[in-house]
Design brief:
The chain is an alpha+beta fold and 210 residues long. The protein has helices at residues 6-14, 26-39, 52-63, 71-74, 124-135, 141-156, 170-173, 192-195, 197-209, and strands at 78-79, 89-100, 106-116, 121-122, 138-139, 160-169, 184-191. The protein is elongated. Bound molecules: zinc ion. The site of zinc ion (ZN) has 6 residues, from loops.
Amino acid sequence: MKTPDGPVKKRRTTSKSAEKPKKPSRNEVEDAVRTLIRWVGEDPARDGLHETPARVTRAFEEYFSGYKEDPAALLEKTFEEIEGYDEMIVLRGIRFESHCEHHMAPIIGRAWVAYLPRGRVVGISKLARVVNAFAKRMQIQEKMTAQIANTINDVLDPYGVAVVLKAEHHCMTTRGVMKPGTDLVTSRMHGVFRDNALTRQEFLSMVNDH
Ligand SMILES: [Zn+2]
């Protein structure tokens, strides 16, 4: 839309400060870690802590590497020579490490992922990689559960998808209300797993047996 003050507005919205903030440099991140070290009452210059900011930065790269992954792309290669296989496929107890988006505290858990194929299957390691791609982000467990199930459902178009996550949240086991030993269980079902109580039950018994 062109208005007399259009160009002014445009200049404002495309100025550096209004654009998507640029990614901080590695030095800036290491400085931020140094600030945290000083803030807890330590001296970032002492021998034992000298290399900590660089190490923490590398650790963060690993913790949040999921942003570089495209989970849908992981499922693109499928196999159709399955001799009419039409029973559920269940990958059980996939260990994952994530971080809660409220405290950036670890969420450590396991995922159970099942689907009922419609004429094609995906390499089983790919299911674990989808879990990883979503886990290595700032997360809440409910959202992560839905993201895994929705992605498999959208890309593979199976008869159904079921995902259960059980995880311990360090923001409540090692701080806050301090309740070690508790875990959070979330699930998301699509298709036959949602509509058919027997199919759902078959899957859930495989979760509980594990
Ligand atoms: Zn938290």
